[in-house]
Amino acid sequence: MLVPASPTYQNRLLASLSETDLAQVRPYLEPVDLPLNTVLIEAGQPVAHATFIEAGLGSVIVSAGEGDRVEIGLFGRDGFACPALVLGSDRVPQQTFMQVGGHGYRIGAEEFRAIIDASPSFRGLLLRYTHTFLIQTAQTAHANATAPVQERLARWLLMYHDRQDGDELMITHEFLSMMLGTRRSTVTLALQLLEGARLIQARRGRIRVLDRAGLEGTAGDAYGPAEAEYERLIAPLCRRADRPLPHHHSD
């Protein structure tokens, strides 16, 4: 399957590239389907590809004892897997998998390293993204330590909402409990509180956002710093309640 000569990229990083950088990157982009639960990066194993999500949601998780897994970061069309490649490492101790199926592009790790070595501007863009992702993981750690589950849930729903079109979020209680590092019963109660406030409508396997502004108010300081930094350094990310999600196109 060949990449069209001038595709319109949904991935914010690819869409931000100049024609000069695109000319270097495009020949190596391989379209790839990314179904639910596809493992992008296996913990402790050499990273085979850099993957740029066009649609769907990737989750970076830490595995604890007895099979417990906790999310430490998420990304979709705002980013790529895995930033460690830009930092000079060929592996990471966390797994990255698709928690919402979709599709994207990938580049072989060897070719990817050659491209970023040849293009300081592309490398700089990816380093700026890595900076924003580190802020996101720091915010997640802070929220997990200090914020009530209801606030953390609102933040997570907003982050998912930012990375897709439409208001239907395809997610199960089981996944949410892993994302938030808490029990399913606790997640169910938090969902009921948000639904009672008419911020969301929860159904089996999906959640519909009804009141974006209300969710932002509930999330409080847990949501916003990483998103603001992404907008400052790369492109708008937030689907703010007062404006639609922006679309970006390659030159």
Automatic annotation (TrEMBL):
GO terms for biological process: regulation of DNA-templated transcription. It comes from the Bacteria. Residues 13-91 form the Cyclic nucleotide-binding domain. GO terms for molecular function: DNA binding. PROSITE patterns: CNMP_BINDING_3, HTH_CRP_2. The keyword DNA-binding applies. CDD domains: CAP_ED (cd00038). Gene3D superfamilies: Jelly Rolls (2.60.120.10), Winged helix-like DNA-binding domain superfamily/Winged helix DNA-binding domain (1.10.10.10). InterPro entries: cNMP-bd_dom, cNMP-bd_dom_sf, HTH_CRP, RmlC-like_jellyroll, WH-like_DNA-bd_sf, WH_DNA-bd_sf. Keywords: DNA-binding, Transcription, Transcription regulation. This is CarD family transcriptional regulator. It comes from Methylobacterium tarhaniae.
